[in-house]
């Protein structure tokens, strides 16, 4: 029974069985890994559905909201089924397989240990017996009954133990295969059971998928138009840098609420009636239409314009456009302020950006177009400007050499620095010694001059409780406060001096 042949067979079977148990262990370990990952996936999905549920109210679109609700619902169904699938797979396969491997490995180990012990005992008894026999003289019958009995008993024990071990190995092979196949079949059932319901979970959102696709198609068109417009504008900017002779290309059109400040505003908050009108920025002009596409009511040249946001109004998205308007007799120019209200924060940003581009482009193109003949038509304009403006418009310092070409005034270098620091673009403050001016700018400068501008901008200065005119000696803070009050908040202006 314990022949070398039998031992060899037993050892081969033992190897196969151990390998089989090891395989089952690895498979069930991997299945448990997959289940843990699945559980993590499900909890991440849950977090996603919660976030989507929070987000949907901010879409401000009923159909999109409903679509998103359906998606959240579907995800929640999906999670439920996925969790159930994981639990079932653990139940039908992974846990029983782990238990099986653990239990059978343990009993194999015990049986193998006791078999080893019995083999050792058997070997000891056998060698003791043969030693006795070999020492014995030939043909003498000696009594070895006790030893023979012991030998017989260990043989029987060894045989029983070997058979036990062999049958355990067989049992593991047969039972193991059976359990494995039934586990795999159970897992297949789970997938069949849940994959259907998981897919069904998403059927409910099919209708809304169409809504979403429609929305995307529609929005894509809008976004593409917008990108094209931004692209065009970038090209326009580039062209201005590369080739200043190009005509202004920044353009935009749309509805704005509008109030003419010069006529209606007494205090900043006290704006009379606002009217909704169609406006356009086009080829360096700001154009007001009677209605969309209808005839032009008025055009303002943006060459000497400036824009700024107004956050001190009752309304949101308001900005102020200051342009130079010719007086009724056409002999001089006066600043005119338009209060405009965009329809949204985005629209406001777009209008402001387009205005700024248009103003810059106007200046660049005008400069290059007119520089050539500026000295021809007004060869001594620098002398004329000096005579017209003997003192700084702000502090009265003699011989100002800096020009604000959007206001048409001249300043000393200290005051011009403050003008630039309060947001007047560099291009709009020029040195009359270093920079050349184009014809239109020269005409404006010759038309406006410090005295005329101050008649408007400092009309109420004498009545001011807080401010007096600054001098060249004024400290920097006073100079800054005065210039801000004079130009930014226009504190000293009167409304009745400006008429269209
Ligand atoms: Zn000054």
From TrEMBL:
<dbReference type="InterPro" id="IPR004148">
    <property type="entry name" value="BAR_dom"/>
</dbReference>
<dbReference type="InterPro" id="IPR011993">
    <property type="entry name" value="PH-like_dom_sf"/>
</dbReference>
<protein>
    <recommendedName>
        <fullName>Arf-GAP domain-containing protein</fullName>
    </recommendedName>
</protein>
<dbReference type="Pfam" id="PF16746">
    <property type="entry name" value="BAR_3"/>
</dbReference>
<dbReference type="InterPro" id="IPR001849">
    <property type="entry name" value="PH_domain"/>
</dbReference>
<feature type="domain" description="PH">
    <location>
        <begin position="249"/>
        <end position="360"/>
    </location>
</feature>
<dbReference type="InterPro" id="IPR027267">
    <property type="entry name" value="AH/BAR_dom_sf"/>
</dbReference>
<dbReference type="InterPro" id="IPR038508">
    <property type="entry name" value="ArfGAP_dom_sf"/>
</dbReference>
<keyword id="KW-0863">Zinc-finger</keyword>
<dbReference type="GO" id="GO:0005737">
    <property type="term" value="C:cytoplasm"/>
</dbReference>
<dbReference type="InterPro" id="IPR045258">
    <property type="entry name" value="ACAP1/2/3-like"/>
</dbReference>
<dbReference type="Pfam" id="PF00169">
    <property type="entry name" value="PH"/>
</dbReference>
<dbReference type="InterPro" id="IPR037278">
    <property type="entry name" value="ARFGAP/RecO"/>
</dbReference>
<dbReference type="GO" id="GO:0005096">
    <property type="term" value="F:GTPase activator activity"/>
</dbReference>
<dbReference type="InterPro" id="IPR001164">
    <property type="entry name" value="ArfGAP_dom"/>
</dbReference>
<dbReference type="GO" id="GO:0008270">
    <property type="term" value="F:zinc ion binding"/>
</dbReference>
<keyword id="KW-0479">Metal-binding</keyword>
<keyword id="KW-0862">Zinc</keyword>
<feature type="domain" description="Arf-GAP">
    <location>
        <begin position="357"/>
        <end position="500"/>
    </location>
</feature>
<dbReference type="Pfam" id="PF01412">
    <property type="entry name" value="ArfGap"/>
</dbReference>
């Amino acid at each position: 029974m314990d022949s070398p042949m039998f031992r060899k067979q037993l050892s081969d079977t033992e190897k196969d069985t151990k390998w089989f148990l090891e395989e089952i262990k690895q498979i069930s370990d991997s299945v448990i890994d997959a289940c843990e990952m699945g559980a993590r996936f499900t909890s991440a999905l849950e977090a996603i559905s919660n976030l989507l549920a929070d987000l949907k109210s901010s879409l401000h679109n009923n159909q999109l909201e409903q679509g998103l609700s359906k998606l959240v619902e579907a995800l929640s169904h999906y999670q439920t089924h996925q969790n159930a699938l994981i639990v079932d797979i653990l139940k039908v396969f992974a846990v029983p397989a782990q238990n099986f491997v653990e239990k059978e490995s343990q009993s194999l180990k015990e049986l193998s240990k006791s078999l080893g012990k019995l083999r050792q005992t058997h070997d000891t008894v056998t060698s003791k017996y043969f030693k006795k026999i070999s020492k014995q003289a030939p043909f003498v019958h000696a009594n070895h009954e006790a030893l023979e009995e012991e030998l017989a008993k260990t043989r029987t024990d060894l045989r029983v133990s070997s058979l036990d071990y062999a049958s355990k190995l067989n049992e593991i092979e047969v039972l193991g295969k059976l359990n494995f196949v039934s586990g795999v079949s159970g897992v297949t059932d789970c997938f069949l059971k849940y994959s259907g319901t998981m897919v069904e979970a998403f059927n409910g959102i099919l209708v809304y998928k169409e809504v979403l696709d429609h929305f995307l198609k529609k929005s894509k068109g809008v976004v593409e138009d917008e990108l094209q417009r931004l692209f065009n504008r970038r090209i326009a900017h580039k062209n201005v840098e590369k080739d200043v002779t190009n005509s202004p290309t920044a353009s935009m059109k749309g509805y704005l609420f509008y109030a003419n400040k010069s006529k209606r505003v007494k205090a900043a908050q006290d704006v009379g009636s606002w009217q909704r009108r169609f406006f356009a920025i086009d080829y360096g002009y700001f154009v007001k239409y009677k209605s969309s596409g209808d005839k032009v009511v008025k055009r303002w040249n943006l060459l000497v314009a400036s824009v700024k946001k107004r956050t001190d109004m009752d309304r949101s998205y308001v900005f102020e456009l200051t342009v130079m308007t010719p007086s009724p007799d056409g002999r001089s120019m006066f600043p005119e302020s338009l209060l405009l209200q965009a329809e949204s924060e985005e629209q406001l940003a777009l209008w402001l950006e387009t205005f700024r581009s248009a103003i810059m482009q106007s200046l660049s193109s005008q400069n290059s177009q007119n520089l050539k003949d500026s000295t021809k038509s007004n060869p001594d304009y620098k002398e004329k400007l000096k005579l017209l403006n003997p003192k700084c418009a702000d502090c009265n310092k003699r011989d100002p050499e800096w020009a604000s070409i959007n206001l048409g005034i001249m300043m000393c270098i200290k005051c011009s620095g403050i003008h630039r620091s309060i947001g007047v673009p560099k291009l709009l403050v020029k040195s009359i010694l270093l920079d050349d001016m184009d014809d239109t700018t020269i005409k404006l400068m010759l038309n406006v001059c410090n005295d005329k501008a101050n008649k408007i901008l400092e009309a109420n200065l004498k009545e001011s409780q807080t401010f007096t005119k600054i001098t060249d000696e004024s400290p920097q803070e006073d100079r800054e406060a005065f210039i801000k009050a004079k130009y930014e908040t226009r504190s000293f202006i009167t409304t009745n001096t400006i008429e269209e």
